[in-house]
Automatic annotation (TrEMBL):
Protein name: FAD binding domain-containing protein
Record carries keyword Endoplasmic reticulum: no
Pfam families hit by this protein: FAD_binding_5
Annotated keywords: FAD, Flavoprotein, Oxidoreductase
Domain FAD-binding PCMH-type residue range list: 4-177
InterPro entries, per the entry: CO_DH_flav_C_dom_sf, Diverse_Substr_Oxidored, FAD-bd_PCMH, FAD-bd_PCMH-like_sf, FAD-bd_PCMH_sub1, FAD-bd_PCMH_sub2, Mopterin_DH_FAD-bd
Signal peptide: none
Keyword Glycoprotein attached: no
Length: 290
């Protein structure tokens, strides 16, 4: 019998390829895939989860790096936050690298993975708003072959993982576009966001894409605020905005993500959270346009 995170697991399988991992999950439908295990260990040790079997993904080299494919970066789900935070990766996808560098203390960054951040789908997952703003997609490997879907479909449960499937890769368009990630932390845990904002200024599509994390179960896209501020930008010129416009954008985003309730006064915590989102959004836009 093997042990994991201080708890007994009857079966631990360590495949060396994606095909072997999919086969192991098909043979043991109740098995739980595990890579870095940062979230799984917390669930096991707190008594929330008692996996009867584990499929370890740490030996699958094909999901621990990245490659280029058709104008996009194909990121392995096993990429750690520490690896994504390095300068060579930051030159590729700056906002995701910034999110990875902020994902808690070194022991978390060294173990935690991109795929784990997505599959766990914790509201405070730092990679999630970045992936939403970049309009990333995920590639799922399963017994019936691979399939690709927008990351938002997976996060919202619109198209969840099917039995025997696991997250293999994340496809992110490579943009020649300014992108930023900022977050505010509180007392909820080391490096854990109370609010986060990812923002992309995309001149090719003349779009501003913003995603707000940690304030709702899934990242929020304030689409009307995006369209409003994109209409203020001189896309054929210097692409600058007055400070007042950035401030107005921040307030627009915050009000969209933490709306007023008719006849109900916002509680102080919600008012403070709205201020935080407004500040992060304003700063993110200002940095992207700088």
């Amino acid at each position: 019998m093997s042990t994991y995170a201080g708890q007994a697991a009857e079966n631990v399988t360590l495949p060396s390829s994606l095909d072997e991992a999919v086969a192991a999950l098909a043979a043991m439908p109740s098995a739980v895939p595990v890579a870095g295990g940062t979230d799984l260990m917390a669930a096991v040790n707190s008594g929330l989860l008692r996996p009867a079997a584990l499929v370890g993904l740490g030996r699958i080299s094909e999901i621990r790096g990245w490659q280029y494919a058709d104008g996009a970066a194909l990121l392995g789900a096993g990429l750690t936050h520490a690896r994504m935070g390095r300068p060579d990766f930051a030159a590729l996808i700056p906002a995701l690298a910034a999110a990875a560098r902020s994902a808690g203390p070194p022991q978390i960054r060294n173990a935690g993975t991109l795929g784990g951040n997505i599959v766990t789908a914790a509201p405070t997952g730092d990679a999630l708003p970045v992936l939403a703003a970049l309009e990333a997609s995920v590639i799922l490997a399963g017994p019936e072959g691979d399939r690709e879907l927008p990351v938002s479909h997976l996060l919202t449960g619109m198209d969840p993982l099917r039995p025997g499937e696991l997250l293999a890769f994340v496809r992110i368009p490579l943009l020649h576009a300014p992108q930023t990630f900022l977050k505010a932390t509180g007392r909820t845990g080391p490096g854990r966001a109370t609010a986060s904002v990812a923002l992309v200024v995309d001149p090719a599509r003349r779009q501003v894409r913003c995603s707000v994390g940690a304030v709702a179960p899934v990242p929020l896209r304030p689409l009307e605020a995006e369209q409003w501020v994109a209409g203020l930008i001189d896309w054929d010129g210097e692409r600058t905005l007055a400070p007042e416009a950035c401030t107005a954008f921040g307030e627009y985003v915050a009000a969209a993500c933490i709306p007023d309730q008719p006849g109900v006064e916002l509680p102080p915590a919600a008012v403070q959270l709205r201020r935080t989102v407004a500040t992060l959004s304003r700063r993110a836009l200002g940095r992207a346009l700088a």
